[in-house]
Amino acid sequence: MSKKFKLVLFIRFLGNALFLAGIIGFIFMFGPLISAEAKYRVDKIKGVKRTVPNIVVSSQSTGSGDINFGVLANPSETSIIPVSTEYGIVIEKINANAMIVAGVNPAREKEYVKALSLGVAEALGSTPPGEPGNLYLFSHSTDAPWNIVRFNAAFYLLKELEAGDKVIVFYKNRRFDYVVFDKSVVSPNDVSYLTNQYDAPVLTLQTCDPPGTLLNRLIVRAKLVSS
């Protein structure tokens, strides 16, 4: 085998390897986003509506006075089982389901990066669910495209929410239902939605927009309708 032939084989091998690495890298970076989009579109085409089933509450209470959740009533294939009723969020329309990490400083990258590896972050200073004020939850889709899988995917499809859609927050084994009334795309430097205070219970959700970029922030606000 001549040196020229070996060189050609090596170049071909290297080219194929780089091409394959590029495909794998693309899937690694954007796989969660593509998967979330695909599942949402398939459900929409099929007319599938995912819901949180009724929860039968146990008559026994914990030592702290909180009520224990019991069994789920009539679960089905389209049921969303909350990952946390101690502090969690479920958005049925986009099949979002995550625990909430409380008291996270959105100005400290290391702190919120750690929190977002576990779930959705509650901004430090937020009002507890059900109380008048601003409950601010954020889940940056990513700080850069190559880090997309390091961040929680719960809010990837937040852009699909419209006025009237329901957002469910569980807190200390209680359920709080909010209904969306506003959606905005704002500059990353606009912190007014974080500092806003309200006379009624308001839930504010934030993520990056478009997903995988740092260009803007998508803000969704919802008001409490039942608890």
Automatic annotation (TrEMBL):
<dbReference type="GO" id="GO:0016787">
    <property type="term" value="F:hydrolase activity"/>
</dbReference>
<dbReference type="InterPro" id="IPR023365">
    <property type="entry name" value="Sortase_dom-sf"/>
</dbReference>
<dbReference type="Pfam" id="PF04203">
    <property type="entry name" value="Sortase"/>
</dbReference>
<keyword id="KW-0378">Hydrolase</keyword>
<dbReference type="InterPro" id="IPR005754">
    <property type="entry name" value="Sortase"/>
</dbReference>
<keyword id="KW-1133">Transmembrane helix</keyword>
<feature type="transmembrane region" description="Helical">
    <location>
        <begin position="7"/>
        <end position="31"/>
    </location>
</feature>
<keyword id="KW-0812">Transmembrane</keyword>
<keyword id="KW-0472">Membrane</keyword>
<protein>
    <submittedName>
        <fullName>Sortase family protein</fullName>
    </submittedName>
</protein>
